[in-house]
Amino acid sequence: MIMFMSNIVSILLMTEFVLGNFANVLLALVNCNDWTKRPKISADGILTALAFCRIVMFWAMLINWYVIVYNLTLYNSEVKIIVHVALTVSNHFSNWLATSLSIFYLLKIANFSSLIFLHLKWRVKSVVLMMMLGTSLFLFFQVAVLSMDEAIQTNEYEGNTTQKIKLRDTLHLSNVTLFTLTNFIPFTMSLTSFLLLIFSLWKHLRQMQLNGKGSQDPSTKVHIKAMQTVISFLFLFVIYILALILSVWNSNQLQKEPVQMLYDVILIMYPSIHSCILIW
């Protein structure tokens, strides 16, 4: 029974991997072509960078899954750290680029009279750039803690074992705390963008009704399309975050192959399906 389930999950994983790579390669080629015509921070540039990050994430996930499931002895400490760092970096930029896309849509589409909002709207490119550069600080600390955590786990039984176990537990707790924080913040920002888009749409529809006009004007359609993009991202991101948090905080359970494979199916589902939705 376990063998049968493992085969089913393996088929699902490979299907998601192929679908996700195809979708992101297509997304990168189309938007990269448009971006080269106007090489500035735009939706095309964000989508191109997002697609490249997710391609890296897919391959890192596949290597990590393949090595764990088949217990390859070639998976030494150096390779393990490289794969985990690649996963962390690609996951970080994938989440923040998707979040910056939500904020980009909000600032470009929504209409508010607030001076703060108008200030951000006029400087939308600077907002996106500063947000990506600012969050790199989180990434730096996360990669540093992750590398130390992996190194301690590898050499756990060398030297002073008791001291190393205490240090390992401290580093592991710091790692999962940073990991949870860096995934929760972009989700909160995307959720805020979605709620503000709803409020902006409601204000726009009310204004249209007062003016005696229909509700199917171009601005309404743009609002709805942006909201569809953001809500699809939020729905998949919630599932992804829950799976990530559970996998990190219950790392002992991941030693069991079926549990590991189930987590991998859920994790790879988010970037695969979301990229297909972006193409649609």
Features:
single chain; 86% helix; globular; 0% strand; 280 residues
What does this structure look like?
The protein is built from 8 helices and no strands. With 280 residues, the protein is mostly helical. The model has no long low-confidence stretch (mean pLDDT 76).
Which ranges are low-confidence, i.e. pLDDT below 50, for 5 or more consecutive residues? Answer: none
How much is the radius of gyration in Å? 21 Å
Basic shape? globular
Query: Element order, helices and strands?
Result: HHHHHHHH
Span of the ends, CA to CA: 38 Å
Number of strands: 0
Give the amount of beta strand, in percent: under 5%
Helix content: over 70%
Helix/strand/pairing category: mainly alpha
Mean pLDDT: 76
Count of helix runs: 8
Write the layout of secondary structure elements.
Layout: H1 2-37, H2 43-70, H3 77-109, H4 115-122, H5 124-154, H6 161-210, H7 218-249, H8 257-279
In short:
This protein is an all-alpha fold and 280 residues long.
